[in-house]
Every structure is written in structure tokens, then in C-alpha cells.
Design a protein that fits this description.
The chain has one domain. The radius of gyration is 20 Å and the shape is globular. The chain is 77% helix and 0% strand. It is an all-alpha fold.
Length: 385
């Protein structure tokens, strides 16, 4: 043990409390959440170095599963290894899971929650303003003045916006391009194996299980293990399974489930808990959430030691820089996709601009307060229509 090493500037308890709060108050989905993590942990508290954050973001983009949850797990691993990753992951996911359980119970017992659409009308617009500012700050911080990185950012922004999905091969290729450009490697069998990683993750999953809970477990395991991109990328996959294939939910129930994900804080993919509750009560919610998040946990902690060990190597660092630029571009593209779907009339335009203005100019005003005001305005406007 190196007694001269710099002490860790925070305790595991401090980090767990931070992620418990972020899971409770962190609205805006993956784009906003990873922006909050960078702002709070890297810039303000200085608990996590910018290099460690970039490594975590690169790994989260390369591996399947929900982006924000994976990044939180990696940041827990940075100084506290497996224990830190486990505690942080649970702390981040637990608050929103409990919220969707409560909403699921209310939905079943009161025959739907029509007020959710009104809340989402206001919250969705404010979230666009918030995540636009988060994306802007993250972009400036991550890319600096490197024109190659800005070029990669632009390509991913455009392709993500046009295709409305993140392309894992473009992200991976961006890392390889910067790697070859800035630190040409000596190829070996191990390097070839490492770049087959995303291919191996897309192996066939055609197995059959009997019993509803087993079906839920296997379906949501596939959702967590084989869907790349942010938590929003999982929505089409879920729709195909729970509505089309298994017919567990109606179209309206699925739309309501997505609305629940958007009006609750924490990772968007927590909608799986709400869906699981509608399908099979508390057991279904627990199984669906565990099955979705366990793969992303393992896909983060298993390669994490190698990212930590070799992340400062010039070749690996160049690769991570390329992947980070691509990831930030994909995130910016996702913001535009969400804006296209959410900003639909003058009221939503005004709410989005107002939220962005407040976030940029009044740093003491916290996001939850803005979200609350926007939700109440959305409800009021909905009832007045």
C-alpha cells in the first residue's frame, strides 16, 4: 500500500448519500443525470477526476444497458471498488424504484392516472431546457479545442438525430480512429479480442422459459444486456415485447408507463418496474428491475479494473477520447430528438427557454424546483384546455 497516495476526499457514505439524492431529485433522464454527475462530482466537489469520469462514460457507452446507471456504478468503483459500485448502484436506483411501485399501485387501484399527461406536458418541456444546458456544458468540457473531436461530435450528433438511435459501431469506430491517429498501436491477439467485445455482447438470446415470472426475468435480462444506448433506447425493445409479443400491456398502458418514466427522477429505464408491477404486482416489478439492472452492473464492474489499470496508457486514452467525443455527440443528438417530440406548441417552447435561462443564470435555483413549477404549469394548462 502506498502511504504517500493522496487520501480519498470523500467517504463511501458521502458518495452513497449523493447518489441517493440524485436518484430522488435527478429529473431529466440520462442526458441530464450524467451532466449532473460531471457538474457535482468533477467540477464542484472534485471527488472524481475528469479522466476517471471520461473512462466511465466511455465504458458506459460501449457496453449495453442504461447509461446513467452504468456511469454511477463505475464512479462508485473508482475509489471503493466492488463494494462502492454495488452500494452506489443500489442508492441511485432505489428511490425511483420505490416511486414507480407507488405509482403502479395507484394506477391499478384508481384505473389509470390521467394527470400524468398534464404533468409530463410541463415537465417534459422544462427537462428539454435543462438537458440542453447540461449537454452544452458537457460538450465544451469534453472536447476542448480539438478539431478532430469536434468533427466526431458533429457526425454523431447528425446521425443520432436523423436515425433517432445511437450507433454503437460509429461510437466504437470513433475511438479506434482517434487511437490510430494519435497513438498507433502494436496489434496483438488481446487487442483484437477486446474490440470484439461489442460483437460478443450481441449474441443470440433465443431461449424459452415457462411461467410468467420466468418470462419477465428472461425478457428484461435481454433488455438490460442487449440494448445499447441511453435508457431511452430500451423503449422500442420493451414495446415489441410487452405489447406486441407477450401482450402483457395495452398500447395505452405502455404509453402511460413511458410517461411514468419521464415524470419520475432517476434512470429512465426504471419504467421496467412500473411495467413489471402492471404485469405481475410487486414480484413482477422486483424481478423486472433486478433483471434489467444486473447485466449492466456486471458489464460495468467486470471491465472496470482494466479501464482503471490501463486508462492512462496513451493508446487507451486516445481511444477513450474518441469514444467520449462520439458519446457526447450522440447525447446532443438525443436532446434534439427529444425536443422534436416534446416541444410541440408555443407554451412548451416558452417553458423550455425559461428553464434553460434559469439554469444558466441562477445557479442557486435547483432543478427539482424548476421541474415542480413546470409540472404545475403543465397541469394547469391541461385543465384549461
Amino acid at each position: 500500500m502506498n502511504l504517500l497516495a493522496s487520501p480519498i476526499p470523500y467517504s463511501l457514505k458521502d458518495l452513497a448519500i449523493y447518489f441517493l439524492k440524485l436518484g430522488t431529485w435527478g429529473f431529466g433522464g440520462p442526458v441530464a443525470l450524467i451532466g449532473y454527475m460531471h457538474r457535482d462530482l468533477v467540477e464542484n466537489k472534485k471527488w472524481i477526476s475528469d479522466e476517471d469520469y471520461k473512462e466511465g462514460l466511455a465504458l458506459s457507452q460501449l457496453a449495453p444497458g442504461p447509461l446513467a446507471a452504468q456511469l454511477s456504478i463505475y464512479l462508485g468503483y473508482v475509489h471503493y471498488n466492488i463494494l462502492g459500485a454495488t452500494i452506489v448502484g443500489i442508492a441511485f436506483v432505489l428511490p425511483s424504484f420505490l416511486m414507480v411501485l407507488a405509482l403502479g399501485w395507484a394506477y391499478v387501484h384508481f384505473g389509470g392516472l390521467p394527470w400524468m399527461q398534464g404533468l409530463f406536458y410541463g415537465i417534459g418541456a422544462a427537462v428539454i431546457g435543462i438537458i440542453t444546458m447540461s449537454s452544452y456544458k458537457l460538450t465544451l468540457k469534453s472536447l476542448g479545442k480539438d478539431l478532430w473531436l469536434w468533427g466526431i461530435f458533429s457526425i454523431l450528433l447528425i446521425t443520432t438525430f436523423l436515425l433517432e438511435e445511437e450507433n454503437i459501431w460509429l461510437i466504437l469506430g470513433s475511438g479506434v480512429f482517434i487511437w490510430l491517429l494519435k497513438s498507433p498501436p502494436k496489434l496483438s491477439k488481446s487487442s483484437a479480442l477486446s474490440f470484439s467485445f461489442p460483437v460478443l455482447l450481441q449474441a443470440s438470446t433465443a431461449f424459452a422459459f415457462k411461467g410468467k415470472l420466468w418470462q419477465i426475468a428472461w425478457f428484461f435480462t435481454k433488455a438490460g444486456a442487449f440494448v445499447f444506448g441511453s435508457g431511452l433506447a430500451i423503449v422500442p425493445f420493451l414495446y415489441g415485447g410487452v405489447v406486441k409479443d407477450f401482450k402483457w400491456l395495452s398500447e395505452q398502458q405502455f404509453v402511460d408507463a413511458v410517461a411514468v418514466a419521464m415524470i419520475t427522477p432517476g434512470p429512465v429505464v426504471i419504467t421496467v418496474g412500473f411495467i413489471g408491477y402492471l404485469v405481475s404486482g410487486f414480484s413482477g416489478a422486483t424481478v423486472a428491475a433486478a433483471a434489467t439492472f444486473l447485466p449492466c452492473y456486471f458489464f460495468t464492474v467486470l471491465p472496470a479494473p482494466y479501464f482503471k489499470k490501463y486508462g492512462k496508457h496513451p493508446g487507451i486514452k486516445a481511444f477513450i477520447d474518441g469514444v467520449t467525443a462520439a458519446a457526447v455527440g450522440a447525447i446532443a443528438g438525443a436532446v434534439l430528438v427529444l425536443a422534436k417530440r416534446t416541444i410541440t406548441d408555443p407554451f412548451t417552447i416558452i417553458l423550455a427557454i425559461a428553464a434553460a435561462y434559469v439554469i444558466f443564470n441562477y445557479k442557486k435555483i435547483q432543478e427539482p424546483f424548476i421541474i415542480l413549477i413546470a409540472g404545475l404549469i403543465g397541469l394547469s394548462l391541461t385543465f384549461l384546455k
